[in-house]
Design brief:
The protein has helices at 4-25, 31-54, 60-77, 83-89, 92-98, 106-129. The chain is mainly α and 130 residues long.
Length: 130
């Protein structure tokens, strides 16, 4: 049977990947905001949607808080600088995933992403109940 909620989540995840990567190379109007902060919002929303696909029975709040917590841990880990991490962070994809410079204000935007991701999951949950 066709599961429209799963299809929507999968479609959203697929759409968010190139959008998120494009935020890392965008150089138009407001590029500093897009590159430094909007990408973080998209990053968190993507992982919330992905986690909801992997763990379909998990509650949206638990998924959102878990992804937010993990993202904050990754942000704090950017304070750690050693040769291995510097080598890993020299690659675009790794740097895009784990970052390279700690910025406390990133956590605000991760929280915004978690709220958006949570709202998406709740909206889809309500949609399936009606």
């Amino acid at each position: 049977m066709f599961d429209s909620t799963k299809f929507i989540k999968l479609s959203l995840a697929i759409i968010l990947v190139p959008i998120g990567l494009l935020t890392k190379v965008y150089n138009g109007f407001g590029h500093e905001f897009v590159t430094n902060y909007l990408g973080g919002v998209i990053y968190v929303v993507f992982f919330i949607v992905l986690a909801s696909l992997v763990f379909p029975k998990a509650k949206p709040l638990k998924i959102s808080l878990f992804v937010l917590g993990l993202t904050c841990i990754i942000e704090v880990s950017q304070l750690i600088q050693n040769d291995l991490l510097k080598d890993l962070r020299s690659h675009f994809l790794i740097r895009s995933l784990i970052g390279s410079v700690f910025n406390i204000s990133d956590i605000v935007f991760y929280t915004v992403g978690a709220l958006i991701g949570f709202s998406i999951l709740m909206s889809l949950k309500k949609r399936t109940k009606t």
